[in-house]
Amino acid sequence: MASIRLAGQDDVATLARLLADFRDFWVRDEPTDEAIERALTTLLADPHTEFLLAEPDLGFAALRFRFVVWTDSPECELEDLFVRDSQRGSGMGRALTEAAVERARERGCRRMNISANDANEPAINLYRSLGFSAWHDPPGGHNLSLRRVL
Question: DSSP label at 142?
């Protein structure tokens, strides 16, 4: 199994290639390669953002942290998870997600959020197998991740 480590500014080129492949996986034209590199330089300098890198160049997890009133602690958002086609089904996604959970715990998080495309059944099954749920009790019902373009 590949090693997973916290990425730094020296990893911009590697992460940029992975993010470009993730963009291409979703059959998108944007952001451009240049915009990805600029964004990564900014994000890697942000103390509330971290990237976990599966070496060598196999996948990544993007983590965002913020303090929330409801848990009186930081919480972690697993914003993006990407594994190269050649690594899918190998346990790499599980290893990255488990590393993300551990990193969130290390930062004092008491809650972690993940959103997934409802057509991505392997990802949803992975997250559920690791204890993530769309249920909220009380008052019941499914949590939804909603978005609005501004």
Answer: B
Strands 111-114 and 73-83 turn out to be parallel
Query: Contact 109/142 with Cβ under 8 angstroms?
Result: no
Amino acid 137: pLDDT:
62
Angle between helices 121-129 and 92-106 in degrees, nearest 10: 50
Q: In this model, does residue 143 exceed pLDDT 80?
A: no
- Asked whether residue 70 is assigned to any structural domain, the reply reads yes
Output phi, psi for 60, to 5 deg.
-155, 160
For 88, residues 6+ apart whose C-beta sits below 8 A from its C-beta are 122
**Cα distance between residue 30 and residue 32, in whole Å:** 5
The CATH number of whichever domain residue 89 belongs to comes to: 3.40.630.30
81-92, pLDDT tens digit by residue?
999 988 888 899
Q: Which of 65, 49, 67, 66 is nearest to 6 (CA)?
A: 49
For 43, phi then psi, to 5°, come to -65, -40
CA distance 114 to 112: 7
Q: What is the residue range of 122's domain?
A: 4-129
**CB 14: neighbour CB atoms within 10 A?**
17
